[in-house]
Amino acid sequence: MNHYSPYFHFPREDWRKLEVSKDQMLTAEELENIRGLNDRISLEDIAEIYLPLVKLLAIHYHEQVFIHGQKMEYLKRHATHTPFVIGIAGSVAVGKSTTARVLKIMLDRWFSKTRKVELITTDGFLYPNAVLEEKGLMERKGFPESYDRTRFVAFLNDLKSNKENVEVPLYSHFTYDVLEETRVISQPDIIIVEGINVLQVDPEQAVFPSDFFDFSIYMDAEETEIKRWYLERFFMLRETAFQDTSSYFHRYTKITEEEARIFALDTWDKINGVNLKENIERTKYRAQLILKKGADHLISDVYLRK
């Protein structure tokens, strides 16, 4: 980004100097419980990257609450404050899920659990496999057209309308399909919405998911690194979760390592890599904050919209 960029650029060494409280610091055990399979996030990352980020999010949250109160006083209305929605976008295997879980725990701690903080992923808004098969979209799973975007926008609209009970569809990475059961959330103060598609736009829709966001984050890294992390994760899963005969991907434990590598590379080159270039990466500069990772999976730079 050049000198006239709409973003402030904070190299890691500058971002870590921001004054923060250590009260939201995680323990090694807590971090291990929420860390992604091959994500190298450390306690040092929590202290240097996530503590300043949580304080920034708290500033934005309090600002929104204040403005809402002032507006309602002026309009002589008594509408309840709507949820503060945080969107987290980025490629598969870049570490979105770990970041979302870290922020959930740290925001709970920041507000001493006086605010209800929820976390959902957009995987449940994928069409079920049966529908994808019918539409000929199984090879496009993860692309914008494989999601029920109307349902996702309706969900966000219900949230922002302060609907009391909102259903969230659930997804299983084990069965690689949407589950029949749903989860109900009720009027959270803060909700984190994580998914590769959350910042994408659809010209056929009048309203985009990001229209409902109060703060948005994009997890960034070079494609060569994301591809390497994707392959590393695939082979880790091949030795662990895929070993279960009920796993959708169990079949890939029965082939040679070279055959499995060819399959994983083909999946990246034809699906995940294409989706990254054609859809996901193009949304990067729609985010208010970009977290840039280096080859070691650690965040090296932070870009914050001015």
From TrEMBL:
Pathway in which the depicted protein is active: Cofactor biosynthesis; coenzyme A biosynthesis; CoA from (R)-pantothenate: step 1/5
Name by which UniProt lists this protein: Pantothenate kinase
Keywords: ATP-binding, Coenzyme A biosynthesis, Cytoplasm, Kinase, Nucleotide-binding, Transferase
GO biological process per UniProt: coenzyme A biosynthetic process
Compartment annotation: Cytoplasm
EC identifiers of the protein: 2.7.1.33
Catalytic activity of the protein: (R)-pantothenate + ATP = (R)-4'-phosphopantothenate + ADP + H(+)
Record family assignment: Belongs to the prokaryotic pantothenate kinase family.
